[in-house]
Amino acid sequence: MKPSFVSRLFSHVSQQSHEATAWLKRYARNPRNVGSILPSSKMLGRAMTSAALRYGARDALFIEAGAGNGAITRVLAQSLAGRNRLVACEFLPSFAQELQRRLPEIEVACCRVQDLPHWQEAGNKTIVSSLPFRSLAKDEARDIGAFLQSELHKNPRSVLVQFTYGLKNPIPLLAADASVESFRHAMVWRNSPPAAVWAYRLAGR
């Protein structure tokens, strides 16, 4: 016998409540690396995926940086199924383990984004980043920004997609690089808080 609409709705609400509670606990323990008091919305996931597919190379390896609880990963995985390879990178072990359990069909790496071995692979990369640049320590944010900058220069059709809760370009190092084009792809109001999606690629492409 199929579950009723009410029971399915109750199950969905319970799951969402459980995920939100787990997220809040992790945020309380590690606010710098979690970045936001609430997980990303499905609408933000769609906007990030839309930008990645629009600007990225057709043959690119997709790398998600700062995958968190997988709110954006799920949308990416559905859109890329049978099309492009996706690697989700998450620094916090609890998030990485939970993400691998929920999405066993994709590869999840638990490490700093700079330490991901997949950067050594030849070819273009499409980087979808949820890294909380505004809350990271300045030195750490600068180091990650410099690393992503080097990846954009390494492969001419590599693209970086990054979201931010602020009004300004979230990665000052890339904003100051005249050889990198940076622009706001979309504003997602149906997210708490509202978020801007930015895209970065080599200028003149």
Provide an overview of this structure.
With 205 residues, the chain is of the alpha/beta class. The longest helix has 25 residues, at 5-29. The protein is globular, with a radius of gyration of 17 Å. It has a seven-stranded mixed β-sheet, sandwiched between helices. The model is unreliable at 5-28 (pLDDT under 50). The chain starts with a helix and ends with a strand. Helix content is 41%, strand content 20%.
Observed structural traits:
205 residues; 41% helix; alpha/beta; 20% strand; seven-stranded mixed β-sheet; 7 strands; globular; 7 helices
Low-confidence stretches: 5-28
Number of strands: 7
Spatial extent as radius of gyration: 17 Å
- What is the terminal separation in angstroms? 56 Å
Largest sheet: 7 strands, mixed
- pLDDT average, as an integer? 86
Oligomer: single chain
Arrangement of strands in the largest sheet: 3-2-1-4-5-7-6
* H-E string: HHHEHEHEEHEHEE
In which range does the helix fraction lie?
40-55%
Report the β-strand fraction as a percent range: 15-25%
Tally of separate helices: 7
Task: Give a quick precis of the structure.
The chain is of the alpha/beta class and 205 residues long. It has seven helices and seven strands; from the N terminus they run αααβαβαββαβαββ. It has helices spanning 5-29, 31-34, 42-55, 71-80, 93-102, 138-154, 172-175, and strands spanning 61-65, 86-89, 107-109, 125-129, 159-164, 180-188, 195-202.
